[in-house]
Amino acid sequence: MTTATRGLDEQTRTIIKATVPVLKEHGEKITKRFYQLMFENHPELKNVFNQTNQREGKQPRALANTVYAAAAHIDNLEAILPKVVSIAHKHKSLNIKPEQYPIVGKHLLLAIKDVLGDAATEEIIQAWEKAYGVIAEVFISVEKEMYEETKNRTGGWVDFRDFKVTKKVVESDVITSFYLEPADDNPFPSYEPGQYITVKAEIEGEPYTHMRQYSLSCAPGEGYYRISVKREDATSEHPAGIVSTFLHEKVQEGSILPISAPAGEFVLDQKDTRPLVLLSGGVGLTPMMSMLESVIEEQPDRKVIYIHAANSGNVHAMKDRVKEITEAHKNVINYTIYASPQENDQYDKKGHIDAEWLSTVLPGPDAAYYFCGPKGFMRAAYLMLKDYGVAETDIHFEIFGPSEDIIN
User: Fold this and answer.
1) Is 35 a catalytic residue?
2) What is the residue range of 364's domain?
3) DSSP per-residue letters across 42-102
4) Whether 289 and 248 share a structural domain
5) Are residues 284 and 399 in the same domain?
6) CA 389 from chain center: how many Å?
7) Is residue 182 part of an annotated ligand binding site?
8) Mean pLDDT computed over 155-170
9) What is the pTM of this model?
10) 8 and 143, same structural domain?
11) Are residues 131 and 7 part of one domain?
12) Active site (annotated) includes residue 143
């Protein structure tokens, strides 16, 4: 990527770096305006972008953080390679195309001009136009490699492919699993534990398709993909989840769902033989279950500690499967925390995970830690693990949104 930035003259790079403080101050306002302008001129892109994340401000904030990081490291874009790769995985899962990048660039520049007004001089706009071209080429190049790798795998595909729901299993009061197999009966690729797929929901009465990413919740090589979806019911602050409600109420065994090939970099390192600690909250158990089921098959002697937090037993999915695994594998230990346990619930701790309790069950800082769950849970887990002395390189997490919400 340094080679790409060499195409930018020194004056352009100087201007870009000078705009960093302004972007930091006005970044979200610019990106919100960007999405407004882009959807007005290209409403078909509402088929691609998650409109719920738009309303809640997650997507504008994520884009603002990416733009800010790129501007701050314009002399050395290798510094943001991890962020590029993470976003590229999501782009691949959504089947973002190279021809969509100029549309994004055009409206980003319009938004910068619109929000900053006279402060966005012609010189600044021209500098950003050049810089965006370089940054876009980086993403297009990384994504091209990913698409080719996916397509060249046995059974691999690009874009969306129809899968049939072969089984629908209610896992708890709010979580249901869907077992998916190719509708064309042709081979399909395996995946790494922790990866996700994108479901394209075509819902009657909705003007646009809705795409949602769901972690695969079983070990690879089972002969199917499995996603376990939490039904997002309406609250005083948010409407019911459009896609989760559709899946729970409308999709049945025999239904067809278009999905993308597995993607994602939040994957279990199966070369690591140190103790493995899995922490999940709520529906965050889905990638953890894939990792747990994988490790007992591929590394049957590896020590595993699985800690799950839920509100109570009636919303705790797959607890019987976890119990079955711990009873069959003496190297696997399971702990359950319920915030509001019900009568007859079996659990190890009431309330929430805290540092004092956690320190009594963890194997020590020198282990591999993976976690997933609601944002508050993940932020607490991250801070507790850092305080516990776990190295940054041993802390792995999945968040479908800005990682800055967790680590800052």
Assistant:
1) no
2) 276-407
3) -GGGGGTS-HHHHHHTHHHHHHHHHHHHHHHTTT-GGGGHHHHHHHHHHHHHHT--GGGHH
4) no
5) yes
6) 26
7) no
8) 97
9) 0.91
10) yes
11) yes
12) yes
